[in-house]
Amino acid sequence: MDTVVTVAQIALGLSALLAIARAIRGPEIVDRIVAVDLVLLLLAAGVGSEAAISGSELYSAIAIVVALIAFVGTVLVARFVEWRDVP
After folding, report:
1. Could you give the CA distance from residue 38 to residue 24 in angstroms, rounded to a whole number?
2. Are 12 and 42 in contact (CB under 8 A)?
3. For residues 44 and 38, what is the distance between their CA atoms, to the nearest angstrom?
């Protein structure tokens, strides 16, 4: 079980690095928003996988909080971008 979760965490880390590269390089603000949202959700998945290994409820709570912050942040930034683009 530990080996599978370790491989999953490595895959999540590599995915996060690629998403960070997209956030830095993205040509438009929308690309950057989606990339940062993806990084936060990958972070929540990584913390969730650590919760599966340790069995601690604290990691589960942290994963839920990170996912909620990612969702709320993405919605707020999307609304701001929509408001900014209105003529």
Report:
1. 13
2. yes
3. 10
53-72 residue pLDDT tens: 888 899 999 999 999 999 99
Contact 21, 12 (CB under 8 A): no
Burial of 46 (0-12, 13-18, 19+ CB in 10 A): buried
Amino acid at 70: A
Could you give the domains of the chain?
Answer: 2-84 (1.10.287)
Q: How wide is the angle at C-alpha 27 spanned by C-alphas 29 and 67, nearest 5°?
A: 45
d(CA 36, CA 82): 18
Least confident window among 1-5, 13-17, 66-70: 1-5
- pTM for the predicted model, two decimal places: 0.83
